[in-house]
Amino acid sequence: MSISAAVRLLQSAGLKATPQRLLVLDALRQLSHPDVDAIFRHAVAHHAGLSLATVYHVLEKFEQAGLIVQLEFNGRRYYDIRRDAHDHVRCRRCGRLDDVNRDPRTHLVFTPGSAWVVESQSLLWEGVCPDCQASTMSREADTP
Ligand SMILES: [Zn+2]
């Protein structure tokens, strides 16, 4: 994404494009479902003076503006810039999160009764990511 496209995205969400916001936006686009620490590490590498408090503040603004959603798995929070309905797959070794597209043919139907107001729905798949599979294979190859 070019800088001008990032500026336009922020403006369309009603936000001024400050250098700090552009850095956090870049981290959200480059990293797959980062947590706040990963966003901070990515952003601070480009702007040494950035504080963790600023990153939290920017994330809050982005969330209020509807640019990102928070995900919570195993008590940890992650940020997702993709806002259309989708699910996730999580690596049980390294914790990496990837997107899973929904297939309307296998869509689940919610019918527990009328007392519920359903606001969101998500499905978590779990497994071993390609990187962890590769490192297991190379470890096994090293073993005499
Ligand atoms: Zn996602």
Polypeptide structure, described:
This protein is an alpha+beta fold and 144 residues long. The chain has 2 domains: 3-77, Winged helix-like DNA-binding domain superfamily/Winged helix DNA-binding domain (Arc Repressor Mutant, subunit A), CATH 1.10.10.10; 84-142, Dna Ligase, domain 1 (2-Layer Sandwich). Helix content is 41%, strand content 16%. It contains 5 helices and 5 strands, in the order H-H-H-H-E-E-E-E-E-H. The strands form 2 sheets. The protein has a 3-stranded mixed beta sheet with strand order 4-3-5, with no helix packed on it. A two-stranded antiparallel ribbon has the order 1-2. Helix 1 crosses helix 2 (19-30). The protein is flat, with a radius of gyration of 18 Å. The mean pLDDT is 89. Bound molecules: zinc ion. The site of zinc ion (ZN) has 6 residues, from loops.
Distance N to C terminus: 47 Å
Strand portion: 15-25%
Run of helices and strands: HHHHEEEEEH
Helix content: 40-55%
Our Rg estimate from Cα atoms comes to: 18 Å
Q: How many DSSP-defined strands?
A: 5
Bound molecules: zinc ion
Q: Please name the fourth-level CATH homologous superfamily of the largest domain.
A: Winged helix-like DNA-binding domain superfamily/Winged helix DNA-binding domain
CATH architecture of the largest domain: Orthogonal Bundle
Helix count, DSSP H or I runs of 4 or more residues: 5
- Shape from CA axes? flat
**The CATH topology of the largest domain is what?**
Arc Repressor Mutant, subunit A
Spans where pLDDT lies below 50 across 5 or more residues: none
Protein structure class: alpha+beta
Question: Regarding CATH, which class of the largest domain?
Answer: Mainly Alpha
Mean pLDDT: 89
Number of domains: 2
For the biggest sheet, the summary is:
3 strands, mixed
